[in-house]
């Protein structure tokens, strides 16, 4: 009985700080995700995908946004590591999503324009051959 009580006390002494660290890490990650929503320029990445196509999507995937250093001043190293990792991951997700939307939009627009052009040319050729 005494061993069980000692084991329970030891486990609770170890588990309490770990739970606090996990909660702090979760809060750091949530804060990073909120901050990156305001920091990443979605319009820029949408335009990159629209005008550069797959190259814009590739650039969005390769380039990771860095959090402003001023947000991390005075924070403990674990907070900085978790915040930075979550910030980069969430920022990259936003960039790639916006660039992919721009790429798809330009592809659809180009397809529609090309289809319309082909219909106009075919119509003009048909009317020229019919004698009207």
Please, could you describe this protein's structure?
- By secondary structure, the chain is mainly alpha-helical.
- The protein has one domain (23-130).
- The chain has helices at 2-39, 42-52, 54-62, 77-130.
- Helix 1 crosses helix 4 and helix 2 (42-52) crosses helix 4 (77-130).
- The model has no long low-confidence stretch (mean pLDDT 87).
Characteristic key phrases:
single chain; mainly alpha; 132 residues; 4 helices
Q: Considering DSSP H and I runs of 4 or more, what fraction of the residues is helical?
A: over 70%
Low-confidence stretches are none
The overall number of domains is: 1
Overall number of strands: 0
Strand portion: under 5%
Mean pLDDT: 87
SSE sequence, one letter per element: HHHH
What is Rg? 27 Å
Main sheet?
none
* Count of alpha/pi helices: 4
End-to-end Cα distance, whole Å, is 105 Å
- Find the structural class using helix and strand composition: mainly alpha
What is the overall silhouette?
rod-shaped
